[in-house]
Write a structure and sequence with these properties.
about 400 residues, Butyryl-Coa Dehydrogenase, subunit A, domain 1, Butyryl-CoA Dehydrogenase, subunit A, domain 2, Butyryl-CoA Dehydrogenase, subunit A, domain 3, 9 strands, about 50% helix
């Protein structure tokens, strides 16, 4: 991987950053938190009109066909400005459709690229575990339909989405377990109940309950034997692009703090002159840059079609701890004002805190890394591309 962005990547990221800096002040973020829909329709329209939703979608479906790294760079800026936009929740299932979808499903991408179709995805259940083994919501085959029963928790932007990609456990007509799969569901389908959750981030999370919800067999994403691969891709896209947002948010919090300690004086000098503050600042930049490198490597490997599951877990487990540390340190460097809800830094702290619990916790991703290292027969060589062991149906 080339760790330096090329000229076009730099231009895309700078343009996205300049746009969001002008269009997304903290007041807009606070207004979105208080709204029922939890996002800015006006900002979404402007964002879509600039073509960023189609960056990594196929050209024949209205996209630009660029590598996934471009989406990662844009999401870094979305995270930096905490833009109240359903970019992550829409693009994650869109990328899965682009990789595994049928021709009929692929047609949806044209509307996604134009910003006309909002998507969501539903993976976690009551246990909160980030694992295909934890999927219990059933999808029983019944003639030409799949009947869904169960609940999904912490579903992002379900209330504003038209379609949701739901991770299910497929059951045959006889009730036999056929393994995990992903199914596209119209969010207005009969039998769906959506209950808003109040989270630390005050964003659009919901509990969604499915009571005998019928969807056509054609809404299943991927071939029958691809079920586990489809769900794995859905989970990895969700995790790695959340890292992009976390890194952007943590970098902004760090820059707020560094700028503050340059000018805040105590005992006749800027507090940034004190060694304790200097060490905190150094740890913060190491954490943010480390998150950036791990996250960008994982996205790059995915864009190249290389094994990346371990790299995704490395990035998310590192980001969970380090980005949280950066935001906490930023608050401490500001002193008491850093902990006041009305102070803008609180927005960044709450978002990063919430994101550490989504897309897999530190412990779950550590377990995946350990499994790849310790459950793989033969000599363990760090730095080698490792495939995670796969067990079970599909």
């Amino acid at each position: 991987m080339d760790v330096l962005s090329d000229e076009q990547e730099v231009l895309i990221q700078r343009t996205a950053g300049e746009f969001l800096a002008a269009e997304c002040p903290p007041s807009l973020v606070r207004a979105a938190e208080k709204s029922e829909e939890k996002y800015s329709k006006q900002l979404w329209t402007k964002f879509a009109d600039l073509g960023w939703l189609g960056l990594c979608l196929p050209e024949e479906r209205g996209g630009q066909g660029l590598p996934l790294t471009y989406l990662g760079l844009v999401l870094e800026e979305v995270g930096r400005y905490l833009a109240p936009l359903p970019v992550h929740s829409t693009m994650v299932p869109a990328l899965v459709i682009a990789s595994f979808g049928t021709q009929a499903q692929m047609k949806l991408l044209e509307r996604v690229a134009r910003g006309e179709l909002l998507l969501s995805f539903a993976i976690e259940e009551r246990s909160g575990r980030w694992s295909t083994d934890a999927i219990a919501l059933s999808g029983r085959r019944d003639g030409n339909d799949i009947v869904l029963n169960g609940s999904k928790y912490f579903v992002d932007n379900f209330r504003i989405a038209q379609k949701c990609m739901v991770a299910v456990r497929m059951l045959g007509a006889d009730g036999g377990d056929e393994g995990p799969a992903a199914v596209l569901v119209d969010t207005a389908s009969a039998g769906i109940n959506c209950e808003a959750l109040l989270t630390t981030a005050k964003d659009g999370e919901s509990v969604v309950r499915f009571d005998h919800v019928r969807v056509p067999q054609g809404n299943r994403v991927g071939a029958p034997r691809q079920g586990r691969a489809v769900v794995d891709a859905l989970m990895d896209y969700a995790s790695v692009f959340l890292v992009s947002q976390m890194q952007g948010a943590a970098r902004q919090a760090m820059e707020f703090a560094v700028e503050y300690v340059k000018h805040r004086e105590a005992f006749g000098q800027p507090i940034g002159a004190f060694q304790a503050i200097q060490h905190m600042a150094a740890d913060m930049v190491n954490a943010v840059d480390g998150t950036q490198l791990l996250g960008r490597e994982a996205v790059w490997r995915m864009s190249q079609g290389l094994p990346a599951r371990v790299e995704v877990s490395q990035a998310k487990s590192f980001a969970n701890e380090k980005c949280m540390m950066v935001c906490r340190s930023a608050q401490q460097m500001h002193g008491g004002i850093g902990f006041i809800a009305e102070f803008d830094l609180n927005l960044w702290y709450r978002r990063v805190t919430s994101w550490t619990l989504r897309g897999g916790t530190t412990y779950e991703h550590r377990a995946r890394i350990a499994s790849a290292l310790l459950d793989t027969p033969g000599e363990v060589r760090l730095g080698r591309a490792l495939e995670l062991p796969v067990a079970g149906p599909n």
